[in-house]
Automatic annotation (TrEMBL):
NCBIfam families: glyox_I. This is lactoylglutathione lyase. The keyword Zinc-finger does not apply. It is an enzyme of class 4 (lyase). It comes from Dichanthelium oligosanthes. It catalyses: (R)-S-lactoylglutathione = methylglyoxal + glutathione. CDD domains: GlxI_Ni. Coiled coil: none annotated.
Length: 350
């Protein structure tokens, strides 16, 4: 079977070819396109509060003005709002060629749990959510299987997913025993001390297994390569309200990494941006999709992104027929992120 057109590059291609999967049909009792006012009133229902991976309740704000586009009077005001918005990495979305095979690998070899599965026959795809804890408090993977598509191009820009484990050697032995592919044996990372290994899933997505005993968030990194690290850091700090948690140059191996996120690396999943000296562009393939980030207000989020020169490829608003509000953006390298309304997302999980 042929894979669908590439999602690589900036602009319309990425927007059109990597649709955000439809959200839970549990929400579809509210009529598609219902007036925002009615939707806000419907929010009076009690909500299960999200928790972060460390177990602390997340502050979900049932804002009455959430659907109003704000007009920030300055970039400082916009930045301050983005910094105090209630954000967390929710999930990472990517395409796989055989859902059952991937679920088997992730559950048997990587110790994930299958959290939920949904089939959207009218759109000809199925999603499976897997991770190490409930979605209201953990970063998880959202696998997409498009009917009849059994192969994708992972490209050169996507790096890996990171998984923190108690014992790297044990995990690698298990992967090998189950017939999985080990591409880098356990040992200290080149130029550092952390014990790591690399394994590959059935589609060839790389997983870096990192020794990180007792971590509350085992699925801890999404590594993407970027062509200009300072430009990318500035984008994720300003347009996305992330913090630069750590930056490490490894001149012996000619690369620099920057860990970006919404809280300490030990407790939260992070975006690991890698710059390889002299490489300014990568081919992105059509397999990797995007990270999803929770926000209290997708409208304000889109406004902030635009104020800082970011590209909004899906204007903020409810997904037709489902009503979960989202907005999609591209970073300067063309990597996509989707911001999802926290309250709508919590409803999906009810
Ligand atoms: C602990 C944390 O900092 C790491 O594990 S970095 C892992 C390291 N990354 C790179 O080498 C990135 C540059 C590389 N050219 C790329 O684009 O992927 C890594 O993968 N090390 C490999 C090793 O064998 O140690």
């Amino acid at each position: 079977m042929m894979a669908p057109p590439t999602t690589a590059g900036r602009g319309a291609v990425a927007c059109a070819a990597a649709p955000v999967p439809r959200r839970s049909l549990l929400l579809s009792t509210a009529a598609a396109g219902a007036a925002l006012h009615s939707e806000q009133l419907a929010r009076a229902r009690p909500l299960r509060l999200a928790r972060n991976a460390a177990g602390a309740p997340a502050k979900i704000r049932a804002s009455a003005d959430a659907a109003q586009a704000a007009t920030f009077t300055s970039t400082d005001e916009a930045l301050a709002w983005a910094k105090k918005d209630n954000r967390r990495l929710l999930h990472v979305v990517y395409r796989v060629g055989d859902l059952d095979k991937t679920i088997k690998f992730y559950t048997e070899c990587l110790g994930m749990k299958l959290l939920r599965k949904r089939d959207i026959p009218e759109e000809k795809y199925t999603n499976a959510f897997l991770g190490y804890g409930p979605e209201d408090s953990n970063f998880v993977v959202e696998l997409t299987y498009n009917y009849g598509v059994d192969k994708y191009d992972i490209g050169a820009g996507f790096g890996h997913f990171g998984i923190g484990v108690d014992d790297v050697t044990k995990t690698v032995e298990l992967v090998r025993a189950k017939g999985g592919k080990v591409t880098r044996e356990p040992g200290p990372v080149k130029g550092g001390k952390t014990v790591i290994a690399f394994v590959e899933d059935p589609d060839g997505y790389k997983f870096e297994i990192l020794e990180r005993p007792g971590t509350p968030e085992p699925l801890c990194q999404v590594m993407l390569r970027v062509g200009d690290l300072d430009r990318a850091i500035s984008f994720y700090e300003k347009a996305c309200g992330m913090e630069l948690l750590r930056k490490r140059d490894n001149p012996d191996y000619k690369y620099t990494v920057a860990m970006m996120g919404y809280g300490p690396e030990e407790k939260n999943a992070v975006l690991e941006l890698t710059y390889n000296y002299g490489v300014t562009e990568y081919e992105k393939g059509n397999a990797y999709g995007q990270i999803a980030i929770g926000t209290d207000d997708v409208y304000k989020t889109a406004e902030v992104v635009k104020l800082f020169g970011g590209q909004v490829v899906r204007e903020p608003g409810p997904l037709p027929g489902i009503n979960t509000k989202i907005t999609s953006i591209l970073d300067p390298d063309g990597w996509k992120s989707v911001f999802v309304d926290n309250i709508d997302f919590a409803r999906e999980l009810e």
